[in-house]
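COMPLEX REQUEST
Ligand: adenosine-5'-diphosphate
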Amino acid sequence: MRDSLRVRLIALSAAVVTTIVAMFGVAVCYVFWRTLVGQTDDELRMRAVTITRSLQPVSGDTFDLNLPDDTQEYFQQEPYYGIWAPDHRVIDISDPAQVTSMPDVLGARLHEGRREISVRTPAGVTVLVGRDLGDARAAVRSLAMMIASVGVAAPVLSVLCGWLLAGRALAPIARINRTARAMADGDLAARIPIDRTETELGQVAVALNSAFDRMHSAMDQLRRFTADASHELRTPVATLSAETEWALGRPRDADAYRDSLVTCRTAALRIGRVVQGLLTLARADADELPLTLAPIRADQLVDDVVTLARPIAAQRQVQISTSVPSVEVMGDPERLQEAISNLVINAVHFNRPGGRVTIDGATENEALVLRVSDTGIGIASEHLPHVFERFYRVESSRGAGQGAGLGLAITKWIVEQHGGTLHSSSEVGRGSEFVVALPIDRHPAPQAQALTGLDAPRNTKTVR
Ligand code: ADP
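STATUS: Structure written out below.
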């Protein structure tokens, strides 16, 4: 509590208010005291001048004093005077209890709590006039009391107002705190309620909420990813276990063992593919999959992919045709081959016997655009936006493909790592098209320069 921001703010403001009131009070009292003393000096000086004018030399060192009536009245009250001849002989003293001796120096002085003014006439007569400063002291004391009472009230008021204001100002921080704690306790759906977005704390809350959103979706993704990964691995692992149990159950003939081994190999290959895909994505997520860039000719890249896909295409009676310009791009040959290969293998897998796969290339806006289209089963519009998600597989296509739903996620990552884009369009029953756009290297190697550009020769082939 003592360390809370609210308490510290209030303590600070109360201390500042008290200091200001105290300094102000001291300054005002001092100025007031100086003014009162100044007024007393003026009054005493005027009376001293009246006395010097009222002195009449009679003979030798003898003087007559004829004070005006008002001055006499004045000195009948508390003020007093003393008059000394040039030889220090007393001429007159109004109140011997107050005036005991002739002053040593002329001018104003504070003497035993009283104010005194001494003047000397041209004839050498010294006149001292004085009065008590009790009234001035009382006036300053009551002013000081007044300021002190304000000085006490001001910090109390400042604490009260500060408590209310700080409470209101810090309420959003309390809300942020509560939400952050709820998040830390596992409530990922908790969000900071925002009343006003234009305030500084409102903007902080907006930024935190969007960070919470991202964290939530990352956690969701992670959960889904883990669940999907274990689901994908469970089936082949179960197959392996059941098949080996069966084979080891009792002695069998050679054909039965062979069939069992084939089943085991298929399951092992599937596990291997899933693990490989997971490893690639995990390394991609951890930024541990650096690209090794080199100039690549688009037609050669596609040729290599088609060469690898040819046996599967032949098996499925799918015809592959390519028309790709000899354009050069900068990229990681291995990764780009993997990306294009995923698209081509999908186009073959999700095709129908006698179907076609076309790989068309063109240069558009300084980018190499590769269109991989097929005449296959197509993807329904509700599934199309999700096919690039990890482990996403269209239910109706299960069994047609061999993959675990990681291929397009990896492909998209590779293309984007090259600064490119990947889009898809599809029609159920008619086929799909996946379009890869890769920026063309703007500074190609000198020997490759002739191959770059719109006029590059086109390499057209059809394989079966
Ligand atoms: P998989 O390894 O299972 O093929 P992908 O990530 O490559 O995973 O593809 C995800 C899903 O998208 C596939 O399971 C399939 O349902 C669908 N798909 C991808 N390419 C095609 C295509 N050319 N035609 C029809 N469906 C496709």
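REMARKS: The pocket of adenosine-5'-diphosphate is lined by residues 342, 346-347, 350, 374, 376-377, 379, 387, 392-394, 397, 401, 403-409, 432 (CB under 6 Å). Confidence is low (pLDDT under 50) at residues 442-455.
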